Amino acid sequence: MSKGKILVTGGAGYIGSHTVVELVEAGFEPIIIDNFSNSKESALEGIKAILHKSIICHTIDCTDAAALRKVFEQEQDIQGVIHFAAYKAVGESVEEPLKYYHNNVGSLVTLLQVMAEFKVFNLVFSSSCTVYGIPEKLPVTEQTPVQKANSPYGNTKKICEEILTDLASSGNSNIKSIALRYFNPIGAHPSAKIGELPLGVPNNLVPFITQTAAGIREQITVFGNDYDTPDGTCIRDYVHVVDLAKAHVVAVERLLQNKAESIEFYNVGTGTGNTVLEAIHAFEHATGQKLNYKIGPRRAGDVPKIYADVTKATEVLGFKTTSTLEEAMQSAWDWQLSLQDNTAKV
Ligand code: UD1
Fold it and tell me: Rounded to an integer, what distance in angstroms lies between the CA atom of residue 219 and that of residue 209?
């Protein structure tokens, strides 16, 4: 018997698709919503190949209240929602801020209104370590002050957290939310049937690494080596996407077991910071591929160093990461190779 229906917005996306798989493995019945603006239907095929069953997917936009209502009407007994659906390209958000505010903030507000109408009171929200800005002290805990966002994208995450906080303190909402502040998700499912699918030139480090190693990009540029870090390159906390996906499952369980406060925040990372060069070397070491990289100028808006204190997620959610950086890199490479196999077959 299923532990309950969980609506997963953005369920065909990178983190969403991995979470759908982990939800099923944990006994839940996920229902996907996606508008495929930054994902492909092939993700659904990948999920099906892993689980040996199809997952229902409603192709709608989360800013469309009428369409959302129809899904809630059609799918009786939704126990909770995991809201991934959002745009996430930092640079694009600077150029098109309204697109980001409309989609990221608009979809959360619409979703919360429809959830309340249908008496669905449990929400897991995709937040980001970007809310900490350039932190004064490392590692960052959930008490580390939130700072002015560096980009409209970052601001949408901050505003969405504030919306959830305001709702929680309004005293007249039954909705409980857990906001997971992701550090840097990387890697892919060990089956190599789902993974990150950047449309166009990747913005993020790991897809750029794997595409360079695969010969799709000629060279990768390391954005700056004059930061105040051991090798001068930026520090991030790279968390395997399957570990991150599992954090959503434990968050949902906490909500359904009625253990959560009206709003809770958790850092989801490994607790370890790695430089860009360490990440590149971990990739090379794990896969045996030599990467063609060069050092270039800093990228505007980059945070010099950030990594998580994950004590709260460990103690309260029982969250534990199990994958090393090298394992994550190997899985990202396996995924890249499987993408090429598929392209070759077409
Ligand atoms: C940022 C945000 C994160 C957000 C994500 C969405 C922070 C700390 N993180 O991640 O919250 O969810 O964008 O996309 O603000 N790099 C290179 N060369 C490349 C690509 C990246 O050197 O070609 C370096 C970057 O300078 C950075 C690291 O790799 O130091 C990771 O970059 P990226 O994968 O883009 O993620 P963040 O910028 O950390």
Answer: 9
Q: What is the pLDDT of residues 66-104, one digit of tens each?
A: 999 999 999 999 999 999 999 999 989 999 999 999 999
Among 153, 227, 238, 307, the one annotated catalytic: 153
245 neighbors 187 (Cβ within 8 angstroms): no
Q: List the residue whose alpha carbon is closest to atom 7 of ligand 1.
A: 130
Please give the structure tokens belonging to residue 332. Answer: 């990202």
What is the Å distance from ligand 1's center to 320 Cα? 23
Under 8 Å CB-to-CB from 288, ≥6 apart: which residues? none
Distances, alpha carbon 298 to alpha carbons 183, 200, 302, in Å: 20, 22, 8
Report whether CATH 3.40.50.720 matches the domain 5-187+238-269. Answer: yes
Taking only the tens place, the pLDDT of each residue in 320-346 is 999 999 999 999 999 999 998 776 543
Range 109-113 average pLDDT = 98
Q: Determine whether the shortest distance from the Cβ of 225 to ligand 1 is under 6 A.
A: no
pLDDT of residue 346: 39
Whether 153 is catalytic is yes
Measure the CA–CA gap between 170 and 154, rounded to whole angstroms: 24
Residues 143-157 have a mean pLDDT of 95
Torsion of the alpha carbons at 327, 333, 335 and 339, rounded to the nearest 10:
180
- Answer yes or no: are the C-beta atoms of 33 and 58 closer than 8 Å: yes
pLDDT for position 341: 74
Query: How much is the pTM?
Result: 0.97
Q: Is the dihedral angle over the CA atoms 200, 201, 205, 210 positive or is it negative?
A: positive
